Amino acid sequence: MSHVLVIESSARQQGSVSRQLTEQFVARWQSSHPDDSIQLRDLALEPIPHLDANLLGGWMTPAEQQSEAEQAALALSNRLTDELLAADVLVLAAPMYNFAIPSTLKAWLDHVLRAGVTFQYTENGPQGLLGGKRAFVLTARGGIYAGGSLDHQEPYLRQALGFIGIHDVSFIHAEGLNMGDEFSEKGLAEAQARLAQVA
């Protein structure tokens, strides 16, 4: 039995293509893996603070010297990191905002990319500690960006996940969603077909 952690990052609760893809992915996954457990974290309903002095203090200050704000920031980071550590499969739903990922998803990454916990520094450079996990990234894009110079989602997420040892990453892009009905329908259909293959 595997544990699946799903991270939603769309600012919209209604009319979100990335949320639609997530629902379809989870339904197909549960059908194929009925014994697996699914955990959902919605970064729009439960926003995570951006990296700040309190979080840095919580990481770097001895426990007995931490302020209440630093302790609270560290407790949240620990909870998010523990969720990731417990997961066998990670699903990131990431609409494209201004050529990149939502700031809420970046904030989540800033809490879980942690030296000594999810990666470590060695004499040969950084080494990820989360090997063996799989990740699926579901994106929704108004234009067509895959493989182009304006796609700052996939390269960044591959690097960030690889940095902590997650190298088995599958991307499912729904593209052309704001380019008229023909492109939108085609882009969504292709994403759904790809989703059906991997889930």
Low-confidence region ranges: none
The CATH superfamily is: Flavodoxin domain
Q: Which class do the helix and strand fractions yield?
A: alpha/beta
CATH class: Alpha Beta
Order of strands in the sheet with most strands: 2-1-3-6-7
Round the mean pLDDT to the nearest integer and report it.
Answer: 96
**Termini Cα gap:** 15 Å
Total E-strand runs: 7
The description of the largest β-sheet is: 5 strands, parallel
Task: Say what the CATH topology is.
Answer: Rossmann fold
**Which sequence of SSEs, written as H and E, runs from N to C?**
EHEHHEHEEEHEH
Number of domains: 1
From the alpha carbons, calculate the radius of gyration and give it in angstroms: 18 Å
How much of the sequence lies in strands comes to 15-25%
> Could you say what the CATH architecture is?
3-Layer(aba) Sandwich
Proportion in helices = 40-55%
Alpha plus pi helix count: 6
Shape: globular
Overview of the structural elements:
The protein is of the alpha/beta class and 199 residues long. It has one domain: Rossmann fold. It has six helices and seven strands, in the order βαβααβαβββαβα. A five-stranded parallel beta sheet has the order 2-1-3-6-7, with helices on both faces. The mean pLDDT is 96. Also exhibits azoreductase activity. Catalyzes the reductive cleavage of the azo bond in aromatic azo compounds to the corresponding amines. InterPro entries: Flavodoxin_fold, Flavoprotein-like_sf, FMN-dep_NADH:Q_OxRdtase_AzoR1, NADH:quinone_OxRdtase_FMN_depd.
